[in-house]
From TrEMBL:
Coiled coil regions, renumbered to chain: none
Keywords in alphabetical order: Signal
Any single GO BP term: transmembrane transport
Pfam families tied to this protein: DctP (PF03480)
NCBIfam families associated with the record: TRAP_S1
Designated name of the protein: TRAP transporter substrate-binding protein
Residues in the signal sequence: 1-22
Gene3D superfamilies in the record: Bacterial extracellular solute-binding protein, family 7
Amino acid sequence: MFKFDRTRIFILSFISCMLILAGCGNGSSPASQPASSGEASAGAVELKLVSFLALDHPFPKDMVPLWKEKVEKALNGAVKIRVVGGPESLPVGDQFDAVRNGVVDIGFNVSSYYGHLMPEAHSLNMSPFTPAEERENGYFDYMADRFEKNNLVYLGRWLSESPYYFWTNKKISSLSELQGTKFRSNSTYHEVMLALNMVPMEVNPGDVYTSLERKMVDGFGFPLLGPRLNGWTEVTKYLIDEPFFNQNATIIMNVKAFQSLSPENQQKFRDVTKEFEQEMVAYFKKENEAEKKALQEKGVELIKLSPDESRSFQDIVKKEKWAVIEKAVPDQIADLKKLLQ
Protein backbone atom coordinates (compact mmCIF):
# COMPACT_ATOMS: atom_id res chain seq x y z
CA MET A 1 0.00 0.00 0.00
CA PHE A 2 1.22 3.51 -0.80
CA LYS A 3 0.86 6.15 1.90
CA PHE A 4 -0.07 9.77 1.22
CA ASP A 5 -0.64 12.73 3.52
CA ARG A 6 -4.14 14.15 3.69
CA THR A 7 -3.27 17.27 1.68
CA ARG A 8 -1.92 15.24 -1.24
CA ILE A 9 -4.92 12.91 -1.16
CA PHE A 10 -7.24 15.93 -1.31
CA ILE A 11 -5.29 17.51 -4.17
CA LEU A 12 -5.21 14.34 -6.26
CA SER A 13 -8.88 13.63 -5.56
CA PHE A 14 -9.84 17.18 -6.58
CA ILE A 15 -7.78 16.99 -9.78
CA SER A 16 -9.28 13.58 -10.58
CA CYS A 17 -12.82 14.95 -10.20
CA MET A 18 -12.04 17.94 -12.41
CA LEU A 19 -10.55 15.73 -15.12
CA ILE A 20 -13.54 13.40 -15.02
CA LEU A 21 -15.95 16.33 -15.31
CA ALA A 22 -13.94 17.71 -18.21
CA GLY A 23 -14.12 14.33 -19.92
CA CYS A 24 -17.88 14.16 -19.46
CA GLY A 25 -18.22 17.61 -20.94
CA ASN A 26 -16.65 16.61 -24.24
CA GLY A 27 -18.46 13.30 -24.61
CA SER A 28 -15.50 11.06 -23.89
CA SER A 29 -15.95 7.38 -23.13
CA PRO A 30 -14.49 5.70 -20.06
CA ALA A 31 -11.95 2.91 -20.42
CA SER A 32 -14.35 0.36 -19.00
CA GLN A 33 -14.27 -2.28 -21.73
CA PRO A 34 -11.30 -3.71 -23.65
CA ALA A 35 -11.17 -1.95 -27.01
CA SER A 36 -9.77 -3.40 -30.21
CA SER A 37 -8.87 -1.46 -33.35
CA GLY A 38 -12.00 -2.79 -35.00
CA GLU A 39 -14.24 -1.22 -32.34
CA ALA A 40 -13.60 2.42 -33.23
CA SER A 41 -17.20 2.91 -34.32
CA ALA A 42 -18.39 2.07 -30.78
CA GLY A 43 -16.50 5.10 -29.43
CA ALA A 44 -12.85 5.64 -28.65
CA VAL A 45 -11.38 4.99 -25.22
CA GLU A 46 -10.00 8.29 -23.93
CA LEU A 47 -6.66 8.24 -22.15
CA LYS A 48 -5.35 11.32 -20.34
CA LEU A 49 -1.66 12.23 -20.74
CA VAL A 50 0.40 14.64 -18.63
CA SER A 51 3.95 15.96 -19.16
CA PHE A 52 6.41 16.95 -16.45
CA LEU A 53 7.55 19.83 -18.67
CA ALA A 54 5.51 22.55 -20.33
CA LEU A 55 4.38 21.32 -23.72
CA ASP A 56 6.28 24.07 -25.56
CA HIS A 57 9.61 23.08 -23.99
CA PRO A 58 12.19 21.81 -26.55
CA PHE A 59 12.07 18.31 -25.07
CA PRO A 60 8.35 17.38 -25.24
CA LYS A 61 7.11 19.91 -27.84
CA ASP A 62 7.59 17.51 -30.76
CA MET A 63 7.79 14.20 -28.89
CA VAL A 64 4.36 14.21 -27.25
CA PRO A 65 2.52 15.02 -30.52
CA LEU A 66 4.60 12.48 -32.47
CA TRP A 67 3.95 9.63 -30.03
CA LYS A 68 0.26 10.55 -29.69
CA GLU A 69 -0.21 10.63 -33.46
CA LYS A 70 1.54 7.29 -33.98
CA VAL A 71 -0.49 5.56 -31.25
CA GLU A 72 -3.85 6.87 -32.43
CA LYS A 73 -3.08 5.97 -36.03
CA ALA A 74 -1.92 2.45 -35.16
CA LEU A 75 -5.03 1.82 -33.05
CA ASN A 76 -7.30 3.05 -35.84
CA GLY A 77 -9.50 5.25 -33.68
CA ALA A 78 -9.96 2.80 -30.81
CA VAL A 79 -8.06 5.15 -28.50
CA LYS A 80 -8.06 8.92 -28.19
CA ILE A 81 -5.24 10.48 -26.18
CA ARG A 82 -6.12 13.76 -24.52
CA VAL A 83 -3.08 15.80 -23.53
CA VAL A 84 -4.06 17.38 -20.23
CA GLY A 85 -0.99 19.62 -20.11
CA GLY A 86 2.24 20.06 -18.22
CA PRO A 87 3.09 21.03 -14.63
CA GLU A 88 0.59 23.88 -14.79
CA SER A 89 -2.19 21.28 -14.91
CA LEU A 90 -0.71 18.80 -12.40
CA PRO A 91 2.27 19.53 -10.12
CA VAL A 92 5.42 17.70 -11.18
CA GLY A 93 5.88 16.12 -7.77
CA ASP A 94 2.41 14.56 -7.95
CA GLN A 95 2.51 13.22 -11.50
CA PHE A 96 4.07 9.81 -10.79
CA ASP A 97 1.47 9.06 -8.11
CA ALA A 98 -1.27 10.46 -10.34
CA VAL A 99 -0.44 7.95 -13.07
CA ARG A 100 -0.09 4.91 -10.84
CA ASN A 101 -3.33 5.79 -9.02
CA GLY A 102 -5.30 6.48 -12.19
CA VAL A 103 -5.85 10.22 -11.84
CA VAL A 104 -4.30 10.38 -15.30
CA ASP A 105 -3.45 7.45 -17.55
CA ILE A 106 -0.09 8.27 -19.16
CA GLY A 107 2.91 10.26 -17.98
CA PHE A 108 5.89 11.70 -19.82
CA ASN A 109 8.14 11.99 -16.79
CA VAL A 110 11.73 11.68 -15.55
CA SER A 111 13.05 9.61 -12.66
CA SER A 112 14.54 12.76 -11.10
CA TYR A 113 11.03 13.41 -9.75
CA TYR A 114 10.06 9.89 -8.69
CA GLY A 115 13.38 8.24 -7.87
CA HIS A 116 12.67 8.61 -4.15
CA LEU A 117 9.65 6.35 -4.70
CA MET A 118 11.42 3.98 -7.09
CA PRO A 119 15.20 4.31 -6.52
CA GLU A 120 16.20 1.75 -9.16
CA ALA A 121 14.86 4.19 -11.77
CA HIS A 122 18.00 6.28 -11.20
CA SER A 123 19.85 3.57 -13.12
CA LEU A 124 18.31 5.00 -16.29
CA ASN A 125 20.99 7.69 -16.08
CA MET A 126 23.72 5.06 -16.06
CA SER A 127 22.80 3.29 -19.28
CA PRO A 128 25.43 3.63 -22.04
CA PHE A 129 23.00 2.03 -24.48
CA THR A 130 20.41 3.22 -26.95
CA PRO A 131 16.76 2.35 -26.24
CA ALA A 132 16.95 -0.34 -28.93
CA GLU A 133 19.99 -1.90 -27.27
CA GLU A 134 18.27 -1.81 -23.88
CA ARG A 135 15.43 -3.84 -25.36
CA GLU A 136 17.92 -6.41 -26.63
CA ASN A 137 20.16 -6.78 -23.57
CA GLY A 138 17.42 -7.27 -20.97
CA TYR A 139 17.53 -3.88 -19.25
CA PHE A 140 14.17 -2.79 -20.67
CA ASP A 141 12.51 -5.99 -19.44
CA TYR A 142 14.12 -5.61 -16.02
CA MET A 143 12.81 -2.07 -15.64
CA ALA A 144 9.40 -3.02 -17.01
CA ASP A 145 9.12 -5.58 -14.21
CA ARG A 146 10.11 -2.98 -11.61
CA PHE A 147 7.55 -0.48 -12.91
CA GLU A 148 4.87 -3.18 -12.88
CA LYS A 149 5.46 -3.61 -9.14
CA ASN A 150 4.51 0.08 -8.86
CA ASN A 151 1.19 -0.37 -10.66
CA LEU A 152 2.66 0.99 -13.89
CA VAL A 153 3.41 -0.18 -17.41
CA TYR A 154 6.79 0.99 -18.71
CA LEU A 155 6.35 1.64 -22.42
CA GLY A 156 9.78 3.09 -23.17
CA ARG A 157 11.90 6.22 -23.37
CA TRP A 158 10.87 9.53 -24.88
CA LEU A 159 14.17 11.42 -24.58
CA SER A 160 17.60 10.06 -25.37
CA GLU A 161 20.89 11.23 -26.85
CA SER A 162 20.61 14.32 -24.65
CA PRO A 163 23.28 14.04 -21.95
CA TYR A 164 24.00 16.63 -19.27
CA TYR A 165 26.70 19.31 -19.30
CA PHE A 166 28.07 21.83 -16.86
CA TRP A 167 27.66 25.44 -17.97
CA THR A 168 29.83 28.06 -16.28
CA ASN A 169 30.93 31.68 -16.17
CA LYS A 170 34.39 30.67 -15.00
CA LYS A 171 36.86 29.55 -17.64
CA ILE A 172 38.59 26.41 -16.40
CA SER A 173 41.30 24.11 -17.70
CA SER A 174 41.10 21.45 -14.99
CA LEU A 175 38.53 19.92 -12.66
CA SER A 176 40.30 21.34 -9.62
CA GLU A 177 39.25 24.82 -10.71
CA LEU A 178 35.62 23.88 -10.07
CA GLN A 179 36.31 23.67 -6.34
CA GLY A 180 34.28 26.20 -4.42
CA THR A 181 32.18 27.26 -7.39
CA LYS A 182 28.46 27.66 -6.75
CA PHE A 183 26.28 25.81 -9.26
CA ARG A 184 22.56 25.37 -9.53
CA SER A 185 22.02 21.66 -8.90
CA ASN A 186 19.37 18.96 -8.82
CA SER A 187 19.15 15.41 -7.56
CA THR A 188 20.54 13.93 -10.78
CA TYR A 189 24.08 15.24 -10.33
CA HIS A 190 24.10 16.62 -6.78
CA GLU A 191 26.60 14.02 -5.53
CA VAL A 192 28.87 14.60 -8.53
CA MET A 193 29.12 18.27 -7.59
CA LEU A 194 29.92 17.39 -3.98
CA ALA A 195 32.65 14.99 -5.13
CA LEU A 196 34.19 17.82 -7.16
CA ASN A 197 34.04 20.07 -4.07
CA MET A 198 31.55 22.36 -5.76
CA VAL A 199 28.77 24.12 -3.85
CA PRO A 200 25.33 22.90 -5.02
CA MET A 201 22.63 25.56 -4.86
CA GLU A 202 18.86 25.13 -4.96
CA VAL A 203 17.48 27.53 -7.57
CA ASN A 204 14.01 27.38 -9.10
CA PRO A 205 14.04 27.23 -12.92
CA GLY A 206 12.38 30.63 -13.13
CA ASP A 207 15.16 32.19 -11.04
CA VAL A 208 18.18 30.80 -12.91
CA TYR A 209 18.63 33.82 -15.20
CA THR A 210 18.58 36.30 -12.33
CA SER A 211 20.88 34.13 -10.22
CA LEU A 212 23.44 34.03 -13.03
CA GLU A 213 23.06 37.72 -13.81
CA ARG A 214 23.58 38.72 -10.18
CA LYS A 215 26.44 36.22 -9.79
CA MET A 216 24.62 34.36 -7.05
CA VAL A 217 25.68 31.19 -8.88
CA ASP A 218 28.65 30.54 -11.16
CA GLY A 219 26.90 28.04 -13.39
CA PHE A 220 24.44 25.19 -13.68
CA GLY A 221 23.97 21.68 -15.01
CA PHE A 222 21.68 21.03 -17.98
CA PRO A 223 21.48 19.28 -21.37
CA LEU A 224 22.16 21.26 -24.56
CA LEU A 225 18.54 22.03 -25.39
CA GLY A 226 16.80 24.63 -23.28
CA PRO A 227 19.32 27.13 -21.86
CA ARG A 228 19.55 29.23 -25.05
CA LEU A 229 15.79 29.41 -25.52
CA ASN A 230 15.35 30.18 -21.81
CA GLY A 231 17.77 33.08 -22.16
CA TRP A 232 20.28 31.58 -19.72
CA THR A 233 23.10 31.74 -22.29
CA GLU A 234 22.78 35.53 -22.32
CA VAL A 235 24.44 35.42 -18.90
CA THR A 236 26.59 32.29 -19.35
CA LYS A 237 29.98 32.32 -21.07
CA TYR A 238 31.19 28.72 -21.24
CA LEU A 239 30.01 25.17 -21.83
CA ILE A 240 32.25 22.42 -20.49
CA ASP A 241 32.06 20.07 -23.45
CA GLU A 242 32.14 16.89 -21.37
CA PRO A 243 28.75 15.16 -21.63
CA PHE A 244 27.73 12.87 -18.80
CA PHE A 245 24.81 10.62 -17.89
CA ASN A 246 22.08 9.29 -20.13
CA GLN A 247 18.64 10.80 -19.90
CA ASN A 248 16.04 9.32 -17.52
CA ALA A 249 12.82 10.20 -19.33
CA THR A 250 10.11 7.55 -19.39
CA ILE A 251 6.67 6.94 -20.86
CA ILE A 252 4.64 5.28 -18.11
CA MET A 253 1.02 4.15 -18.11
CA ASN A 254 -1.45 3.18 -15.42
CA VAL A 255 -1.76 -0.61 -15.39
CA LYS A 256 -5.58 -0.64 -15.23
CA ALA A 257 -5.82 1.75 -18.17
CA PHE A 258 -3.46 -0.48 -20.11
CA GLN A 259 -5.39 -3.63 -19.20
CA SER A 260 -8.63 -1.98 -20.34
CA LEU A 261 -7.29 -2.35 -23.89
CA SER A 262 -7.55 -5.55 -25.87
CA PRO A 263 -4.40 -7.72 -26.00
CA GLU A 264 -4.07 -6.68 -29.64
CA ASN A 265 -4.02 -3.00 -28.77
CA GLN A 266 -1.76 -3.50 -25.78
CA GLN A 267 0.80 -4.97 -28.15
CA LYS A 268 0.31 -2.10 -30.57
CA PHE A 269 1.11 0.37 -27.78
CA ARG A 270 4.37 -1.48 -27.17
CA ASP A 271 5.26 -1.81 -30.85
CA VAL A 272 4.51 1.83 -31.63
CA THR A 273 6.65 3.05 -28.73
CA LYS A 274 9.54 0.84 -29.84
CA GLU A 275 9.30 2.34 -33.33
CA PHE A 276 8.90 5.85 -31.91
CA GLU A 277 12.13 5.49 -29.92
CA GLN A 278 14.17 5.11 -33.10
CA GLU A 279 12.73 8.32 -34.57
CA MET A 280 13.20 10.07 -31.23
CA VAL A 281 16.91 9.21 -31.00
CA ALA A 282 17.54 10.46 -34.54
CA TYR A 283 15.56 13.63 -33.81
CA PHE A 284 17.51 14.61 -30.70
CA LYS A 285 20.86 13.74 -32.26
CA LYS A 286 20.11 16.20 -35.05
CA GLU A 287 18.73 18.83 -32.67
CA ASN A 288 21.75 18.64 -30.36
CA GLU A 289 24.20 19.01 -33.23
CA ALA A 290 22.35 22.08 -34.46
CA GLU A 291 22.10 23.51 -30.94
CA LYS A 292 25.83 23.24 -30.32
CA LYS A 293 26.48 25.28 -33.47
CA ALA A 294 23.85 27.83 -32.46
CA LEU A 295 25.44 28.22 -29.02
CA GLN A 296 28.84 28.96 -30.52
CA GLU A 297 27.30 31.47 -32.90
CA LYS A 298 25.77 33.20 -29.86
CA GLY A 299 29.20 33.47 -28.26
CA VAL A 300 29.17 30.54 -25.84
CA GLU A 301 32.71 29.14 -25.74
CA LEU A 302 33.25 25.37 -25.52
CA ILE A 303 35.82 24.09 -23.04
CA LYS A 304 37.42 20.70 -23.70
CA LEU A 305 39.00 18.75 -20.87
CA SER A 306 42.27 16.92 -21.41
CA PRO A 307 42.01 13.13 -21.93
CA ASP A 308 43.20 12.52 -18.35
CA GLU A 309 40.78 15.06 -16.89
CA SER A 310 37.97 13.60 -18.98
CA ARG A 311 38.62 10.08 -17.67
CA SER A 312 38.83 11.37 -14.11
CA PHE A 313 35.53 13.22 -14.47
CA GLN A 314 33.70 10.23 -15.94
CA ASP A 315 35.08 7.97 -13.20
CA ILE A 316 33.70 10.37 -10.57
CA VAL A 317 30.31 10.50 -12.29
CA LYS A 318 29.98 6.72 -12.38
CA LYS A 319 31.29 6.15 -8.87
CA GLU A 320 28.98 8.69 -7.25
CA LYS A 321 25.81 7.67 -9.07
CA TRP A 322 26.32 3.95 -8.52
CA ALA A 323 26.93 4.66 -4.83
CA VAL A 324 23.58 6.45 -4.59
CA ILE A 325 21.79 3.56 -6.29
CA GLU A 326 23.54 0.89 -4.21
CA LYS A 327 22.62 2.65 -0.97
CA ALA A 328 18.96 2.79 -1.99
CA VAL A 329 18.57 -0.69 -3.53
CA PRO A 330 21.51 -2.88 -2.43
CA ASP A 331 19.62 -6.02 -3.42
CA GLN A 332 19.42 -4.86 -7.05
CA ILE A 333 22.86 -3.35 -7.61
CA ALA A 334 24.53 -6.52 -8.94
CA ASP A 335 21.81 -7.10 -11.53
CA LEU A 336 21.78 -3.46 -12.61
CA LYS A 337 25.54 -3.28 -13.04
CA LYS A 338 25.53 -6.53 -14.99
CA LEU A 339 22.94 -5.11 -17.38
CA LEU A 340 24.53 -1.68 -17.78
CA GLN A 341 28.28 -2.24 -17.71
